[in-house]
C-alpha cells in the first residue's frame, strides 16, 4: 500500500475525474427534479431540463413580441459592456496611479496610506451615493465597478512595484535610465503578469458589483433579468442565467490567462504555465 | 585614465558609525579587492562609490571631480543577485543600456544604429560565453551564467569603474574559478578599474592588484557601534608574479563540468592512499 499522495492519475483519467463532479451535480439535479415533478407537476422550484430548453429558446432564439429584441443576447451585451468598460477603466487607473505611487518615494508617502484606506471602503455601502450623484443610468453602474475594483488593483500594483529588488533599480540607473524609463521599461513589464493575476482574482467582485447595481436600478442586463423573474419564481430562467454568467466569468478568466502568457512569456517559463 | 580618490569618508546611521575616516587613492587600471568581516561596512563603502548611499562626511573623486549624487553610467555594477532584468532575454538585457540614452521616451533604437548595437552586444556575449543563449530569459540560466550576463550588461556601457558586490559569493567552487578567469581577462582587455567586495580571502589574493582590509581599529564591548571601520591593511600585488590560475579553460556550461573534473582529479591525488582501489573495493563487496 503506497501513500495516498503517491497515486497520480494518468492524463485521460485526470480529465474524466475533472468532469465527474459536474456530471454528478447534473444527475442529482435530474433525479431531484423528477421526484418533485412526479409529486406535483406544476412545481416551479426544480424545473426539468425540457423546461430549461423552452425558456432558453424563448429568451435567446425568439424575438420578444413587445420590444422585438432577443432578450438573452441583449442582456448579455448590456452586462458585458458594463463589465468591460468598468474593468478597462480600472486597469488603466491602477497602472497610472499604482506604478508612480509604488515607485516614487514622495508619492508613496503622500498617497500610499490613502489608497489603502480608500480600497477598504465597502463599495456597496456607497452605491446609494453613486445613484444620487450619477443618476440611475450606465454611469453609476460603471463607477461602482471602478470604485470596487480599481483601488484594490492599484494597491496591489503599488505593492508589486515595491517588491522589485532594489538592485535592479540601481542597475537600471547605472545603465543611464531616467525615472520614466525605469517605470515603463523595468517596472511596468514586471507588474503586468501580476496585474493579470489580480484582475482574475477580482473578476468575482466585478460580477458581484455589476449584478448588485443591475438588481437595484436597471432596465436590462443579466442581473436585472434574474431579479425581475424572481417575482414569478422562474427558476427555468434564473438557473440558465446563473450558468451562463458562470461560463462568461470562466471564459474571461481563461482569456486573461492567455493574455498573460502572450504578453509575459518570461513570467510563465519555468512555472509550468 | 581613471584615478579614484576617496577622502576622509565617514558614514553614520544615527548614533552608529559604520565607516570612520576612510582615505585611499586608486591609480588607473587597479583591481582593488575590499575584504572585511561581516558588518564591517565594505558593502557600505561600495554603495557610496556607487552613489546608492551618500557619505555623511568626506568625498569620492573620479579624475579630480566629485562623483554624481546618483548612480550613473560611469560606474557599472554587478550585485550578488538581481543584477539582470528577468523580463528581458539575454540579448535584450545587454542591448538595454545604450538604447536608454539614445531614445529617452521609448528606450528603443531602430535601423542602422540598432544593428550596430546588436553586433556589439553579440561580440560581448561571445566574450562572456553566452553566445549560445541569446533568446533565453535569466530564469533559464544557471547562477554563473546570470552573473556573466550581468557583467556583459554593465560592460557595454564602457564604465570607468566596475563595482562588484560579492559577485561570485553565491556560486559553487568550479563556477567561481571560471568566473575569476573571465573577469581577469575582461579587466585586462577593457583597461578599466575594478573595485570588488568579497569576504573570500583566497579570491582576493587570486584577483586583486590591491587588497584593502576594512575593519574596526577599536572595539568598545559596551558600545559596539561607537567606532566605525577604516582601512587596516593596504597591500599591493604584482599580477605578473602571481602563480597562474590552475583552472582549465572552457566555455559556457561545459566549463563547469570541465573544471569540476580537474578539481576532482586534484582532490583524488591529494587523498592518496585513502582512495580505495577498484580491486580492493570488489574484495570488500565479496566479504559483505
UniProtKB/TrEMBL annotation, chain A:
Alphabetized PROSITE patterns for the sequence: ABC_TM1
Gene3D superfamilies: MetI-like
Protein name (record): ABC transporter permease
Transmembrane segments: 12-32, 83-104, 111-136, 198-217, 238-257
Record's keyword annotation contains Chaperone: no
Signal sequence, renumbered to the chain: none
A biological-process GO annotation: transmembrane transport
Keyword Cytoplasm: no
From TrEMBL, chain B:
Residue span, ABC transporter domain: 4-241
InterPro entries with a match to the protein in the record: AAA+_ATPase, ABC_SmlMolc_Importer, ABC_transporter-like_ATP-bd, ABC_transporter-like_CS, P-loop_NTPase
Gene3D superfamilies: P-loop containing nucleotide triphosphate hydrolases (3.40.50.300)
GO function terms (MF aspect): ATP binding; ATP hydrolysis activity
A Pfam family reported for this protein in Swiss-Prot or TrEMBL: ABC_tran
UniProt keyword Nucleotide-binding present: yes
Keyword tags: ATP-binding, Nucleotide-binding, Transport
Alphabetical list of PANTHER family matching this protein: BICARBONATE TRANSPORT ATP-BINDING PROTEIN CMPC, SPERMIDINE/PUTRESCINE IMPORT ATP-BINDING PROTEIN POTA
Family membership noted in the UniProt record: Belongs to the ABC transporter superfamily.
Protein name: ABC transporter ATP-binding protein
Organism: Acuticoccus mangrovi
Lineage, top ranks: Bacteria, Pseudomonadati, Pseudomonadota, Alphaproteobacteria, Hyphomicrobiales
Amino acid at each position: 500500500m503506497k501513500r495516498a499522495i503517491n497515486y497520480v492519475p494518468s492524463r485521460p483519467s485526470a480529465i474524466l475525474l475533472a468532469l465527474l463532479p459536474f456530471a454528478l451535480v447534473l444527475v442529482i439535479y435530474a433525479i431531484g427534479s423528477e421526484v418533485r415533478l412526479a409529486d406535483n407537476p406544476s412545481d416551479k422550484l426544480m424545473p426539468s431540463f425540457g423546461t430549461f430548453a423552452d425558456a432558453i429558446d424563448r429568451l435567446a432564439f425568439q424575438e420578444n413580441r413587445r420590444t422585438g429584441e432577443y432578450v438573452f443576447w441583449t442582456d448579455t451585451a448590456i452586462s458585458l459592456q458594463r463589465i468591460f468598460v468598468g474593468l478597462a477603466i480600472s486597469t488603466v487607473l491602477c497602472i497610472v496611479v499604482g506604478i508612480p505611487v509604488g515607485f516614487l518615494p514622495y508619492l508613496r508617502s503622500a498617497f500610499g496610506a490613502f489608497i489603502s484606506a480608500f480600497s477598504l471602503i465597502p463599495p456597496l455601502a456607497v452605491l446609494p451615493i453613486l445613484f444620487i450623484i450619477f443618476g440611475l443610468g450606465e454611469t453609476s453602474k460603471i463607477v461602482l465597478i471602478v470604485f470596487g475594483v480599481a483601488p484594490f488593483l492599484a494597491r496591489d500594483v503599488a505593492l508589486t512595484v515595491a517588491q522589485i529588488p532594489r538592485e535592479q533599480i540601481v542597475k537600471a540607473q547605472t545603465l543611464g535610465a531616467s525615472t520614466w524609463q525605469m517605470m515603463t521599461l523595468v517596472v511596468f513589464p514586471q507588474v503586468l503578469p501580476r496585474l493579470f493575476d489580480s484582475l482574475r482574482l477580482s473578476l468575482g467582485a466585478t460580477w458581484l458589483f455589476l449584478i448588485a447595481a443591475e438588481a437595484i436600478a436597471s432596465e436590462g442586463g443579466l442581473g436585472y433579468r434574474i431579479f425581475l423573474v424572481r417575482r414569478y419564481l422562474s427558476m427555468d430562467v434564473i438557473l440558465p442565467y446563473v450558468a451562463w454568467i458562470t461560463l462568461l466569468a470562466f471564459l474571461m478568466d481563461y482569456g486573461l490567462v492567455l493574455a498573460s502568457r502572450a504578453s509575459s512569456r518570461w513570467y510563465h517559463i519555468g512555472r509550468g504555465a | 585614465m581613471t584615478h579614484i580618490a576617496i577622502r576622509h569618508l565617514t558614514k553614520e546611521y544615527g548614533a552608529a558609525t559604520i565607516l570612520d575616516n576612510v582615505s585611499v587613492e586608486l591609480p588607473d587600471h587597479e583591481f582593488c579587492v575590499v575584504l572585511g568581516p561581516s558588518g564591517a561596512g565594505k558593502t557600505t563603502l561600495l554603495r557610496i562609490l556607487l552613489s546608492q548611499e551618500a557619505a555623511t562626511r568626506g568625498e569620492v573623486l573620479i579624475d579630480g571631480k566629485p562623483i554624481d549624487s546618483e548612480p550613473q553610467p560611469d560606474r557599472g555594477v554587478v550585485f550578488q543577485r538581481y543584477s539582470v532584468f528577468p523580463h528581458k532575454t539575454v540579448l535584450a538585457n545587454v542591448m538595454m543600456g545604450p538604447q536608454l540614452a539614445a531614445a529617452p521616451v521609448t528606450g528603443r533604437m531602430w535601423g542602422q544604429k540598432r544593428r550596430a548595437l546588436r553586433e556589439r552586444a553579440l561580440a560581448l556575449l561571445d566574450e562572456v560565453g553566452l553566445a549560445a543563449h541569446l533568446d533565453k530569459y535569466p530564469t533559464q540560466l544557471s547562477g554563473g551564467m546570470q552573473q556573466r550576463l550581468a557583467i556583459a550588461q554593465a560592460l557595454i556601457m564602457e564604465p570607468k569603474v566596475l563595482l562588484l558586490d560579492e559577485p561570485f559569493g553565491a556560486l559553487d567552487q568550479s563556477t567561481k574559478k571560471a568566473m575569476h578567469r573571465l573577469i581577469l581577462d575582461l579587466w585586462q582587455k577593457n583597461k578599466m578599474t575594478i573595485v570588488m567586495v568579497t569576504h573570500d580571502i583566497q579570491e582576493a589574493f587570486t584577483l586583486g592588484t590591491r587588497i584593502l582590509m576594512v575593519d574596526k581599529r577599536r572595539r568598545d564591548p559596551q558600545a559596539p557601534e561607537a567606532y566605525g571601520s577604516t582601512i587596516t591593511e593596504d597591500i599591493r600585488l604584482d599580477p605578473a608574479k602571481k602563480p597562474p590560475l590552475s583552472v582549465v579553460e572552457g566555455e559556457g556550461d561545459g566549463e563547469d563540468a570541465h573544471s569540476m573534473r580537474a578539481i576532482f582529479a586534484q582532490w583524488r591525488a591529494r587523498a592518496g592512499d585513502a582512495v580505495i582501489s577498484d580491486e580492493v573495493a570488489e574484495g570488500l563487496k565479496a566479504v559483505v
